[in-house]
Write a structure and sequence with these properties.
single chain; alpha/beta; seven-stranded mixed β-barrel; 6 helices; 7 strands
């Protein structure tokens, strides 16, 4: 027993165990579970851009294996052979699609689209033909790059126009005027703030005083005998209407005097005769007055 389990044997056994652990650990880091049974399939792709070893293999988003190895096919010099390490229970139906899918970050993965309409399956280790599905970045490159190429001359013209506009002295003067306007607005705002702090309270006090006087005047008006005053005014107005109606009526002397044309003419003639008499009296007093001493 001592001969077989000597120091050298222990060292050799330790090295073998370390190598085994290292192998299992490296494969585990790659995503390969050496303790789990698996089956292998080869897939030929025209391009494997973005695909790396240990990349996931999925079916409807579920991971069923990983990429074991990527080898360039030197026999054809046209394709790249990818070894897929899949779960042991997985069977790939004939005419199933295997394609390469690339995400937004440029990382590729293998996607298997199983054919549910057949009952025949590929043998383990069979060679399948793969497809490269255009990802988002490829679509953007195919669609946007031509448009960008068309827009580049226009962008160059726009940048040139912007440079001319920026270098125009009128723009600098406009900016200076805007700065001046801004400074004036700041001063006006400061003045308005000062007025709001100083003048507005005084104005509000005056308004409150005026409001109080109006209220007092309104109270005074409420205490006045407006109803009796209005009754007196109505009575006076009625009396004036009566007087006016009497003046316009021919039933009284004053009404006759104002409305009778013949009476007016006679009165006017009497006044003319009196006036003539007074004039003659003033001019010839002796004709009407006699003085005799004896």
């Amino acid at each position: 027993m001592k001969k077989w389990f000597g120091k050298e044997a222990k060292i050799a056994l330790s090295v073998l165990i370390s190598i085994l652990i290292l192998y299992v650990g490296i494969n585990y880091l790659k995503g390969i579970n050496v303790m789990k049974p698996s089956n292998y399939y080869y897939v030929q792709f025209p391009s494997v851009a973005g695909l790396a070893q240990s990349a996931p293999v999925t079916i409807d988003g579920y991971k069923v294996g990983l990429v074991q190895e990527i080898v360039y096919d030197y026999d054809t010099n046209q394709t790249i052979k990818v070894l897929l390490n899949l779960d042991k229970k997985l069977k790939i139906p004939v005419d199933s699609r295997v394609y390469l899918e690339t995400d937004m970050l440029g990382t590729s993965s293998v996607v298997i689209d199983l054919n549910p309409h057949v009952s025949e399956y590929y043998e383990h280790g069979a060679l399948l033909q793969g497809e490269v599905k255009s990802g988002l970045m490829q679509s953007l490159q195919a669609d946007l790059l031509p448009q960008v190429a068309v827009l580049l001359p226009k962008l160059d013209s726009i940048i040139t126009g912007l440079q001319i506009l920026v270098n125009d002295p009128a723009l600098a003067s406009s900016v200076k005027r805007i700065d001046h306007i801004t400074a004036n607005l700041e001063r006006s705002s400061a003045q308005l703030s000062g007025m709001m702090q100083n003048d507005v309270p005084v104005i509000l006090d005056n308004v409150q005083g005026i409001t109080a006087q109006i209220n007092q005047f309104s109270d005074t008006l409420n205490t006045l005998p407006l109803q009796s005053t209005m009754a007196s005014v109505q009575k006076t107005s009625y009396n004036l209407q009566q007087i006016t109606s009497r003046l316009t009526s021919p039933d009284n002397s004053l009404g006759l005097l104002l409305n009778d044309r013949a009476l007016y003419d006679r009165a006017n003639g009497v006044l003319g005769s009196v006036d003539s008499l007074m004039i003659d009296l003033r001019l010839n007093p002796k004709r009407y007055v006699h003085f005799s001493l004896f």
